[in-house]
Each structure stands twice: as C-alpha cells, then as structure tokens.
Amino acid sequence: MRKIGLNKILFCPFLLFLTACATPADMYRDPKMDFGAIQTVAVMPFTNLAKEQIIAERVRDVFITNLLSTGAVYVLPVGEVARGISKVEMANPGAPSPEEVIKVARIVQAQAVITGVVREYGEVRAGITSANLISMSLQMIETQTGKVIWSASSTAGGISVWDRLFGGGGQPMNKVTEKAVNDLIQKLFK
Predict the structure, then answer these.
(1) Comparing C-alpha atoms, which of 183, 180, 158, 161 is closest to residue 171?
(2) Under 8 Å between Cβ of 117 and 137
C-alpha cells in the first residue's frame, strides 16, 4: 500500500474549493451579431444606484469621452439623445423598453443604444482604512429588434491588501472611474 503525503491530502480539497469559487463570465456578447456594422451609438442616461445624485451623469460623460476616443464608433451628442427621449416621451430612459429603443433609434439614426447602471460610487471603509470604489454595468441594444447584444459589468478600486496592511486611501476617484470604463470598453471590442 502506497503512502499518500500530507501535502497531497491538503491540496485536493484546496483544488475543489477553487473550482467551486469560480465565477461565471461578467460579459455577454451575441455571437450572431456583426458588431462591425454598428457605426452610430446613442448612450442613454445611466441609472444611478449610488448615494449622490449626479454620479451617473459624471460616469456617462467619462464613458462617452473614452468611447469616442477609440474612433471605432460615432457617439451621438447628449443633446441629440435627449431630443429623441423627449420626442418618444420615455418615462425611464435608464431602462427603456425594446419598443422605446426602436423609436428613439429611428429618431436619432443610431444602430445601437447603450444603457447603464452605476451600482456603487464613492468611498468604502473597512475599519480605519478607506478607498474609492466604482461598480457599474452596461448593455448594448440593437435598434432593429430591441434585443440586448452585449452586456458587461466592471468594478474598480476598493480596499487592497496593501491598504489594509499599510494604510492609504487607494486611488483617486477619477482614476478608478476611468479604469472601470476602460475595462468595459475593452470588453465591448473583444
């Protein structure tokens, strides 16, 4: 009979623990969609679940600027999108129905509409340590059918092990926001 080492006995439950903790992908991409056909995008006002009221507009502005800087798509000006929302008389532009998406897109001439939710934004604390954090998710809706063709989420910032051990306040909020936004843009163009 062979002896099984103590290391092997302890290692097997550890592997099982790791596989049980695996999380599903934080992105959906419609495999049938030709994303190269999308040239014009309308970014709707983001839904704000954070404490401060104007956070969603700040994050939307950073997202639009960074998306425009890629040169991959034309992002309609905020005023044009607001005009389309007004004409459709949309009650909740942060969560439009498929019919509302189709109507707005027809008015503003967009091939896709992006909606978003800012879940967390600001300072988080653990004991005496604090750091900035943002958590958000976006989805892209195709404007002929009103179907979601891409969805992703991102969280950036938070309290690191380094912050817990040595103190510190983490990164500035604008850096954390740009990191989360750029993560989402990279997921969009994968």
Answers:
(1) 158
(2) yes
Q: Are strands 74-75 and 148-157 parallel, antiparallel or unpaired?
A: unpaired
Distance CA 42, CA 76 (A): 5
E-only strand ranges, the chain: 27-29, 40-43, 47-48, 74-75, 112-126, 129-142, 148-157
Rounded to 5 degrees, φ, ψ at 127 are 70, -125
Provide the pLDDT confidence category of residue 19 given band limits of 50, 70 and 90. very low
Residue pair 99/137 in contact (Cβ under 8 Å)? The answer is no
Provide the residue type at 150 as one letter. Answer: W
Q: Return the closest-CA partner of residue 44 out of 145, 139, 114.
A: 114
Cβ-based neighbour number of residue 138 at 10 Å: 22
**For the chain, what percent of residues have pLDDT higher than 90?**
67
Element (H, E) at 176: helix 173-188
Pick the CATH number of 26-188 from 3.90.950.20, 2.30.30.30, 3.40.50.10610, 3.40.50.300: 3.40.50.10610
Q: What is the dihedral of CA 177, 182, 185, 190, to 10 degrees?
A: -140
Query: CA end-to-end span of the chain, whole Å?
Result: 52
Domains of the chain, by residue range, sit at 26-188
Query: Is the pTM above the cut of 0.85?
Result: no
CB 58 within 8 A of CB 44: no
